[in-house]
Amino acid sequence: MGLARVARCVREDVAAARLRDPAARGGAEIALLYPGLHAVWAHRANHWLWMHGARFAARAGSQMARWLTGIEIHPGARLGRRFFIDHGMGVVIGETVETGDDVMLYHGVTLGGRQREGGKRHPTLGDGVTVGAGAKILGPVTIGAGSVVGANAVVTRDAPDESVLTGIPAKPRPLRKGEDTRGLLRAPDYQI
Fold this sequence. Notes:
Layout: H1 3-20, H2 27-33, H3 35-51, H4 55-69, E1 72-73, E2 84-85, E3 92-93, E4 98-99, E5 104-105, E6 110-112, E7 124-125, E8 130-131, E9 136-138, E10 142-143, E11 148-149, E12 154-155, E13 163-167, E14 170-174
Parallel strand pairs: 1-3, 2-5, 3-6, 4-7, 5-8, 6-9, 7-10, 8-11, 9-12, 11-13
Antiparallel strand pairs: 13-14
Helix pairs in contact: 3-4
């Protein structure tokens, strides 16, 4: 990857964070203080190592990034452009995860597996998917483009494009035109 391409990716990532995080104050703050971006940038380097056969170095780099950021991304995962993790503590992304572009995860999200067999065992997220805090997407499921997974949902089945997934187990429903899904992305208030 050339230096110009790396610089373009960094600018895109900072712009994506600024667009998605209303608390963002400026590019320097985002670049220096956002652990979600640091984890993604480390992942890109580790993924390059993984793809070029330096698997031990890639795993060592991913463990160092996990230690520094609290975000675990396996170096085999394939992340799209402008992938953003807001806050990020406790995020786990498995080896065979694939995402489209403009995907956003909140803290505590797991993109994990459900079986021990080899092959594709982790989720695939389409372009523009947003996953709320604490949600778990498990197994080789596909979440269609433009979908929203609500906070604390547990997803174990495929969902079509433009879906809203909530509940345990999560059930998809169509996203209504103009629907404001921001409330789905926060953990619900539990009353005792």
